[in-house]
């Protein structure tokens, strides 16, 4: 607990820092600095809380929010989500400071203040901004609901304001915000009541007082929330358009001049559904605090109206039934209903599940409500006499089941199965065979969620038999599906066997012991002409081979291989899967054992597999020998250390006409461009650039060209061509000769001796072996460059001085010589 003295001391220490940051945000202009200031302010808010921060900083003059401080609201919104302040908030501060500022912004958003087109346009903009400020201020409400310290004093008066604000159709965004705050305050109060052990006496008394206040206020809030759910669903709360319901909707103390929502089509169903979820969550959170008699009466009214709606043929009866079922589900979720109320709900939902007269949406909502009942009240489901009635209801309603309700129906069955007591009540196990058929057929459903729910239900039932150590009985129930008349059911049964084996074969020895006999049973299905059955059988064989050991599999190996090679109509479709299975069998037993079992017409497949395996083995052995025989003299150590796995295109990442432009070719092109620019810059040198030319000569004499020092792109090692070998650029292994040079690369792999030359037009000049060798005299200078060029200008014996055309490098060296003479 923080004392008043500590609080005041903290305020004195924080005030200069906060005011300095606020003023700094006003002074800086760049966005980066503003973001840093906002981050610092957010950290302060997380530590001290919104209430203390707003007591130090004023957002405006009391009538509106200042423009230069609007950023504080956004910072407050972000900081409240992760606030760790030890100071408990107070609803009184929210009511006196935040709501007063929101009312001022709402008042400033009034229209009709000016005349003329420009004034009306400006008013519309100001109105929109003011309304957005109202929503932003209200978004702080959930923060003040986290264990506030003044519920007993402030919440009764604030509750009336909350009800009116939720009904204001001008601010539809306030509904989820307020409902979230109500849910938070109810959950925090409930946690305080649950954790009374070790609490101080004053804290326990305050928790009890807060619960009483919520209980009193819930009698006013819950009916309003019920009406909001009905209005969001487009349903009138009193069967028809009654004046009483209309009067209560106008009792929100809000202007209705902008109420045009009734004229809009239902185009934002997802947003409306999200609002309904927020409202129902608030109902479920507040219901435990509601007096039992009041809640029971409210629930009975909902069920009564539901029964009336089921017997009417009005156009909006489906929407009304869905709304009432949603309200009943919210009350069931609160876990505060008596057994009589639960029984009443079961009796009301049962006729809806037994008929298809209602729409698919109503049946789906009924299953969803019944699933919530099974989840929250498992004892009610497993009571004597009622469990069998529920199972009969599930089985009897199969023929009238709507397609869209299958998933929720499986959830209901799954919750019933989880509630079974197989230890003390043997009769519960008799339920499994009755529902197995529907579960198997659901494995082939077109909806992915339905299939996954069926698989999960299948595993839940298997857990029951594992507890009894009786998996044999469970497999017998599933294998019974193999005798069905339809291929659809037989395929589903094999898929169920595959999933159960996959989940339990490695951990349960009883399943592994049963697997050989199951595999023999499934092999019989290879004589089927149905593709879906063959597909399921091939999948089961693949799972079984991975789970069985060699000794268990060997006795049935001939029948297995013979069955696999019968694939008939599925030959082209299942060839790849069968090939994978044969590879596993060959890995276990070898080609000598498997080849005699394969029909003569299909031996080519095994021969092809053997050739591929031998080729891969030889290549692997050759690579191993080459790797082991490497020496430092061979020059392959770098390749060994720098090698990596082949990329997706088998190493063809150079510009070979196959891959086109890649990242690697991009680097090489940049390298060529850099060489071209270096040559062009060297051609335009003047006397004033003599020093830079001499440094370039030293660079070339030391073994580094302009390209290797200025470009970090890839280079190709062509040193092997000096001995007569030709580098094949189409070879996938050519990437081993590619290196990315760094500025400090002093290895033997450089561009020396393989210099690339360009003429004035940018074309590549290719010379012979007697051309220029960029090298020094071994003493670190580049004096022999000019000598080599002089000899080359003189040409071979008998060549005249003017009989040959000067190359670009000759022109360079002439400039170098002139510069040396001038110096």
Describe the structure.
The protein has 823 residues and is mostly helical. The protein has 36 helices and four strands. It has helices at residues 4-27, 31-48, 50-56, 71-80, 91-108, 117-138, 141-144, 151-166, 174-194, 201-232, 243-249, 269-286, 292-310, 317-333, 339-353, 360-376, 378-381, 386-396, 406-418, 432-442, 448-467, 471-479, 487-504, 509-523, 531-547, 550-553, 557-564, 571-589, 591-594, 603-628, 637-642, 663-683, 690-701, 706-710, 784-794, 808-822, and strands spanning 714-716, 738-740, 757-758, 764-765. The strands form two sheets. A two-stranded antiparallel ribbon has the order 1-2. A two-stranded antiparallel sheet has the order 3-4. β3 and β4 form a beta hairpin. It is flat, with a radius of gyration of 42 Å. It starts with a helix and ends with a helix.
Label this structure with key terms.
single chain; 823 residues; mainly alpha; two-stranded antiparallel ribbon; 36 helices; 4 strands; 1% strand
Average of per-residue pLDDT values: 75
Rounded to the nearest angstrom, the distance between the terminal CA atoms is: 86 Å
Helix/strand class: mainly alpha
Helix run count: 36
Instruction: Give the quaternary arrangement of the chains.
Output: single chain
Helix share, percent: 55-70%
Label the overall shape. flat
Computed CA radius of gyration, to the nearest angstrom = 42 Å
Residue ranges: pLDDT <50 for 5 or more in a row?
111-122, 237-268, 629-712, 741-754, 768-804
Largest sheet: 2 strands, antiparallel
Classify the beta-strand content into a percent band: under 5%
Spatial strand arrangement across the major sheet: 1-2
Would you report the number of β strands?
4
């Amino acid at each position: 607990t923080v004392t008043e003295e500590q609080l005041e001391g903290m305020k004195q220490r924080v005030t200069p820092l906060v005011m300095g940051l606020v003023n700094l945000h006003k002074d800086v202009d760049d966005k980066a600095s503003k973001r840093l200031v906002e981050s610092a302010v957010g950290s302060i808010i997380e530590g001290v809380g919104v209430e203390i921060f707003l007591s130090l900083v004023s957002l405006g003059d009391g009538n509106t929010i200042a423009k230069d401080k609007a950023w504080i609201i956004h910072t407050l919104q972000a900081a409240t989500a992760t606030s760790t302040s030890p100071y408990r908030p107070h609803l009184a501060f929210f009511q006196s400071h935040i709501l007063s500022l929101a009312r001022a912004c709402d008042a400033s958003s009034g229209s009709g203040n000016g005349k003329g087109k420009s004034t009306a346009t400006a008013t519309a903009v100001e109105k929109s901004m003011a309304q957005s400020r109202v929503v932003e201020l209200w978004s702080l409400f959930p923060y003040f609901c986290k264990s506030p310290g003044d519920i007993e004093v402030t919440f009764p008066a604030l509750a009336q304001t909350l009800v009116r604000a939720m009904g204001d159709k001008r601010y539809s965004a306030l509904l989820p915000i307020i409902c979230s705050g109500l849910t938070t305050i109810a959950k925090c109060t409930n946690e305080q009541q649950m954790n009374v052990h070790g609490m101080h006496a004053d804290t326990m008394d305050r928790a009890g007082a807060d619960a009483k206040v919520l209980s009193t206020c819930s009698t006013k809030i819950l009916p309003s929330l019920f009406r909001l759910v009905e209005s969001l669903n487009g349903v009138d709360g009193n069967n028809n358009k009654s004046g009483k319901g209309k009067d209560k909707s106008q009792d929100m103390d809000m202007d209705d001049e902008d109420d045009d929502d009734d004229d809009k089509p239902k185009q934002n169903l997802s947003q409306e559904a999200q609002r309904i979820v927020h409202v129902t969550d608030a109902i479920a959170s507040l219901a435990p605090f509601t007096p039992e008699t009041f809640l029971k009466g409210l629930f009975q009214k909902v069920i009564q109206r539901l029964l009336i709606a089921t017997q009417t043929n009005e156009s909006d009866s489906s929407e009304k039934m869905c709304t009432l079922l949603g309200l009943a589900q919210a009350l069931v979720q609160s876990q505060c209903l008596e057994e009589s109320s639960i029984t009443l709900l079961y009796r009301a939902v049962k006729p809806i599940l037994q008929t298809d007269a209602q729409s698919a949406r109503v049946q789906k909502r009924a299953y969803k409500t019944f699933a919530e009942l099974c989840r929250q009240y498992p004892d009610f489901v497993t009571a004597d006499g009622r469990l069998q009635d529920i199972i009969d209801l599930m089985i009897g309603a199969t023929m009238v089941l709507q397609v869209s309700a299958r998933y929720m129906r499986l959830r209901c069955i799954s919750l019933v199965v989880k509630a079974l007591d197989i230890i003390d009540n043997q009769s519960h196990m008799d339920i499994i065979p009755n529902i197995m058929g529907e579960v198997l057929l659901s494995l082939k459903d077109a909806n992915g969620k339905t299939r996954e729910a069926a698989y999960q239900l299948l595993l839940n039932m298997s857990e029951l038999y594992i507890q009894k150590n009786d998996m044999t009985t469970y497999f017998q129930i599933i294998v019974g599906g193999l005798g069905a008349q339809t291929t659809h059911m037989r395929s589903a049964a094999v898929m169920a066997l595959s999933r159960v084996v996959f989940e339990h074969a490695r951990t349960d020895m009883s399943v592994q012991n049963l697997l050989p006999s199951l595999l023999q049973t499934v092999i019989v299905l290879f004589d089927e002409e149905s593709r879906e059955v063959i597909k399921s059988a091939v999948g089961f064989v693949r799972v079984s081979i991975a789970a069985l050991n060699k000794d268990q599999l060997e006795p049935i190996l001939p029948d297995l291989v013979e069955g696999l090679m019968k694939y008939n109509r599925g030959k082209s479709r299942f060839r790849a899967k069968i090939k994978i299975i044969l590879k596993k069998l060959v890995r276990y037993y070898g080609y000598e054992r498997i080849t005699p079992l394969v029909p003569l017409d299909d031996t080519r497949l095994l021969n092809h597999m053997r050739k591929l395996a031998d080729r891969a083995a030889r290549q692997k052995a050759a690579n191993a020998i080459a790797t082991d025989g490497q020496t430092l003299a061979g020059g392959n150590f770098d390749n060994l250390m720098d090698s990596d796995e082949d990329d997706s295109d088998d190493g063809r990442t150079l510009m070979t006409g196959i891959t086109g432009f890649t990242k690697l070719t991009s680097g090489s092109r940049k390298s060529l461009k850099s060489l071209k620019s270096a040559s062009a810059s060297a051609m335009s040198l003047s006397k004033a650039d003599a020093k830079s030319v001499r440094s370039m000569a030293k660079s070339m004499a030391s073994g580094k060209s302009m390209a290797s020092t200025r470009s970090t792109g890839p280079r190709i090692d062509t040193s092997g061509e000096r001995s007569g070998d030709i580098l094949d650029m189409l070879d996938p292994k050519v990437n081993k000769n590619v290196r990315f040079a760094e500025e400090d690369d002093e290895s033997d792999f450089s561009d020396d001796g393989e210099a690339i030359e360009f003429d004035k037009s940018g074309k590549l000049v290719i010379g012979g072996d007697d051309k220029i060798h960029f090298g020094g005299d071994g003493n670190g200078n580049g004096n022999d460059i000019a000598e080599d060029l002089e000899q080359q200008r003189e040409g071979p014996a008998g060549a005249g001085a003017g009989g040959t055309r000067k190359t670009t490098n000759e022109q360079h060296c002439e400039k170098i010589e002139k510069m040396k003479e001038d110096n």
